[in-house]
Amino acid sequence: MESSFYKALRCRQCRGTAMVFDDDAQPLERSWCLFELLQTLQLSEVGGAFEGLSLCTSSGVLNAGGCSVDAALSISKKLKSLKLQNAKASCLEDKQMIDSLVQQQPGGFDAVNGFVREKVCEVLRITRKHFGSELARLESGLLLQNSLADTGQPQPQPQP
């Protein structure tokens, strides 16, 4: 396989793959994106300096907690039932070639589907942690404001 993505990903300077999602997670409906996932999975298993798959949206990197709860939920719901073997390509030969490469991978489509689900579960855990931390900060701020109001102390102005 000598696609430009394959060459770029296999370059020693490459540190990972960024997959950019819309709300419908459409990249995973395309065979070439499946090919990119397969290459990422293979490189992730080797280890080294390769950092793996980053799932991204217009609001940030999901793996780093940089997205809204709504975005994480929307993508997760879509991926819960998505089967990568149903991905499509505009060229039938491309789909057949990519499907064959996936099937040659230990575990085939089940392994690649599991890889994507594992990454999405990681995103959900990170999003839950960030959201919980933000809620705790807001709650503490509100309680502090109440206690200051109860004591008659001057209330600090909120920071922008």
Q: What are its keywords?
A:
160 residues, 3-stranded mixed β-sheet, mainly alpha, 7% strand
Brief rundown of the structure:
The chain is built from five helices and three strands; from the N terminus they run αβαββααα.
Explain how this protein is built:
Helices cover 57% and strands 7% of the residues. By secondary structure, the chain is mainly alpha-helical. It has one domain. A three-stranded mixed sheet has the order 1-2-3. A hairpin with a 2-residue loop joins strand 2 and strand 3.
Structural class by SSE content? mainly alpha
Distinct helical segment count: 5
Question: What is the succession of H and E elements?
Answer: HEHEEHHH
Overall pLDDT: 83
Placed side by side, the strands forming the largest sheet appear as 1-2-3
Secondary structure: elements and pairs:
Layout: H1 4-9, E1 17-20, H2 31-46, E2 53-57, E3 60-61, H3 69-80, H4 92-104, H5 108-151
Parallel strand pairs: 1-2
Antiparallel strand pairs: 2-3
Helix pairs in contact: 2-4, 3-5
